[in-house]
Amino acid sequence: MSPRFRLGFLSHVQGRGEDPKQAYRDAQELFVVADELGFDVGWVAQHHVPLAGGGLPSPWPFLTHAAARTRRIRLGTAITVLPLEDPVRLAEDISVVDALSGGRVEVGVGSGGSDVEYAAFGRDVARRRELTTEGLAVLRAALSNQEVGAAGFTIQPPADDFTDRIWQGVFSGTGAAHAAAAGSNLLLNRAAYGYDEPTDEVQRPWADAYLAAWREPRTPRIGLSRFVFPAKDRRTALAQIGDDVHRAALRFGERGGFPAGLGVDEALRRFHSFYGHPDEIVSALRAERVLPVATDLITQFNPAIPDQDAAVRALELIATEVAPALGWKPREGAVT
């Protein structure tokens, strides 16, 4: 792994449904906690329908609020579903948040894949890869302050340099090579769907294909998203995450992403879960096959929805015990 890798966390802003507004407040609080602990990047995932695994349809207003409450942590999307966005309007939102945050924005995009979401926005889900490629070309041009949409039109405020701040989420070696050819950083998901092999065995060739196809003069970045939930012991962690992960795996089974009817242990394996005492997690992560080539470790709790106190404690353990044991150092001034 990179000798000074960046540590991130990813929120899907997904509560239990009793009070959706509380889920937003809780997620904002995690950004504040992560900023204080020295996390390098805070990411959010965009979902327009809850069945897709999250509750945040509009990430940029959310990140604007997070920017006002934090000082140093970078702010990113992993991912924005690009085919459902107007890329010019998206570029304007990105540039505004970047200006307000002092240049802290990272932009992760992808194609998504929810039939319901595509139908709701009048897009053809069968064209999602083509639409992503087309939209990304326009987004890049807009963030480079080139004319887009009409002669003489450029976005305002003028964007700062986003050359090394655009990421693509992919689900294949071909997609990874395509992201490299486009000059995008790479985002790898917490789990590989549709495979029986362990996620890291599936994804390592994708990362290798990305690195082999990279032709830019700057250093490529690989963001590795992983389910990481430390607690005082494995039993305590399982009490917080087990039922949620199991239910999520059963839902994925209904949609074909996982085999149907998985038990809890197999559900945790399919989601490539790292949980338990920090020492156990460190040992497991040291054996992770993709981690040695990653530049960013992006931890997340989804599909689990732990209570807020447990989530805060897990962030603390990640920042003070797990990540430092892997070589990460918090920035100066972080609360340890």
TrEMBL record:
Record key words, sorted: Monooxygenase, Oxidoreductase
InterPro entries: Bact_Lucif_Oxidored, Luciferase-like_dom, Luciferase-like_sf
GO CC, any one term: cytosol
Pfam family, one: Bac_luciferase
All residue ranges annotated as the Luciferase-like domain in the record: 10-264
UniProt GO MF annotations: monooxygenase activity; oxidoreductase activity, acting on paired donors, with incorporation or reduction of molecular oxygen
Name of the protein in question: Alkanesulfonate monooxygenase SsuD/methylene tetrahydromethanopterin reductase-like flavin-dependent oxidoreductase (Luciferase family)
